Structure to design on (477 residues):
């Protein structure tokens, strides 16, 4: 097998974890630069997967299985990346808000952000406003991205923004919100900086704001 | 098979728009179509405008009752919204969608169910992360059944929903849910099981096919109610055929009648 960056990228896009891992090993053995393997192989693959998912060409399980392949491949690659400063675009804190346990949308945003080269701090589900505030204080991210899937928990977004405000952190971060029941109108009303209609739109907006 | 008709739900764009514009005719059209298609209960959900749910749910109840006498299934996790709408409901018994084991929600919705002698959809969901394995689902179901019957609700009024999760992210959720249905139906003879279907196919192509395949499999394990779109002729045909296959339709008379009525899509 000719183990090239392209091979690695291709296996990750196709979600074949064993093949992806084997390709990473072979590429490393052949002397391919680990940093290039990360950036042009793995991260580039997830970017392609994100675009395909967003356009409807890929279905959700294809995204999930590609992410699994990526995670496995990163595990193999990581020891070789020590000392190589991985270039990160920016840091984002993501979480599903208090009272809400839906993690699919949040996880998709996370995958696409990582695929786009962001450093992501995932607070998980049912994240209380104080936890978001603590993460902003501790991690100093550029973005705080909140997800909600039920109407009742949309109010937790308002409370989180208020908590950021009270802690004096509101001006230090860009707040993005998203989730099925949300609207631009609601985002405006609670004082979010932007509304991401879907995961792709969310990442695109983050990219735009960094420029 | 008890059919709870799901179309009047604020998570659907057309319904959200009708709610916003207070367009009674659009809602009533949905109600009539679903009743005509064989709905036993008409679900009403007015929940995408924070703070306005009591008012909107009450409005939906009034508007739907003007055109059908089918009983309603009031769909909200918010006891306040249910309490506002319940006194306006005419046809009995009413159904509440839904209760779960979150402390406050359980207590408040149980009180309403007792007061109005309502049928209740009980979600296998506690305070923490969702129950994904069959064992976890059955454990929550047992707790729900015990606590609800102890409070005086008859077993026959309980519709336990084991909550199926998207196969796209949890490929084992289908089998776990099917297993849970069988164990719940065996463990509490007389109780009902129910499922919403749209979740199972989230993120997959040809979703309707996946939904009705899951539904038929669930019926095979004993599920006797479903929250569905009764205007989906293929889905309703699959239910009708499954009833015959599972020996729940004497001499297939229901199936034949549906066929003669032109309701069966082969």
């Amino acid at each position: 097998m000719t183990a090239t960056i392209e091979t690695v990228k291709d296996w990750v896009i196709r979600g074949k974890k064993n093949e992806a891992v084997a390709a990473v090993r072979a590429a490393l053995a052949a002397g391919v630069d680990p940093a290039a393997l990360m950036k042009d192989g793995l991260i580039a693959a997830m970017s392609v997967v994100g675009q395909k998912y967003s356009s409807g060409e890929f279905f959700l399980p294809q995204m999930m299985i590609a992410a699994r392949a990526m995670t496995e491949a990163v595990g193999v690659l990581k020891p070789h990346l020590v000392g190589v400063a991985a270039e990160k675009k920016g840091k984002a804190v993501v979480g599903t808000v208090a009272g809400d346990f839906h993690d699919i949308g949040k996880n998709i945003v996370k995958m696409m952000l990582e695929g786009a080269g962001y450093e992501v701090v995932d607070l998980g589900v049912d994240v209380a406003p104080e936890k978001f505030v603590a993460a902003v204080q501790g991690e100093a991210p550029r973005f705080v991205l909140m997800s909600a899937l039920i109407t009742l928990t949309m109010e937790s977004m308002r409370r989180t923004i208020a908590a950021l405000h009270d802690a004096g952190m509101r001006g230090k971060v860009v707040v993005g919100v998203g989730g099925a029941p949300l609207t631009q109108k609601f985002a405006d009303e609670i004082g979010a900086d932007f509304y991401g209609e879907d995961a792709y739109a969310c990442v695109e907006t983050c990219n735009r704001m960094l420029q | 098979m008890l059919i709870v008709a799901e179309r009047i739900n604020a998570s659907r764009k057309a319904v959200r728009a009708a709610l916003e514009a207070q367009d009674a005719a659009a809602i009533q059209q949905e109600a009539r179509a679903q009743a005509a298609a064989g709905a036993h209960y008409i679900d009403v959900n007015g929940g995408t405008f924070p703070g306005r749910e009591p008012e909107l749910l009450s409005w939906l109840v009034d508007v739907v009752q003007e055109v059908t006498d089918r009983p309603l299934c009031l769909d909200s996790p918010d006891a306040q919204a249910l309490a506002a709408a319940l006194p306006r409901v005419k046809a009995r018994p009413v159904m509440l969608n839904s209760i779960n084991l979150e402390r406050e929600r359980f207590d408040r919705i149980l009180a309403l169910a007792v007061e109005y002698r309502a049928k209740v959809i009980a979600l296998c969901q506690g305070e923490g992360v969702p129950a994904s394995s069959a064992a976890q689902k059955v454990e929550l179901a047992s707790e729900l059944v015990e606590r609800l019957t102890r409070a005086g609700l008859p077993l026959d009024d309980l519709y336990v929903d084991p909550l199926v999760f998207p196969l796209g992210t949890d490929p084992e959720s289908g089998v776990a849910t099917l297993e849970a249905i069988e164990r719940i139906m065996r463990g509490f003879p007389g109780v009902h099981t129910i499922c919403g279907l749209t979740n199972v196919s989230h993120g997959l192509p040809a979703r309707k096919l996946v939904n009705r395949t899951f539904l038929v499999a669930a019926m095979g394990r004993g599920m006797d109610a479903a929250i569905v779109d009764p205007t989906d002729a293929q889905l309703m045909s699959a239910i009708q055929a499954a009833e015959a296959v599972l020996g729940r339709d004497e001499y297939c008379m229901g199936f034949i009648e549906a066929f003669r009525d032109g309701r069966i899509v082969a």
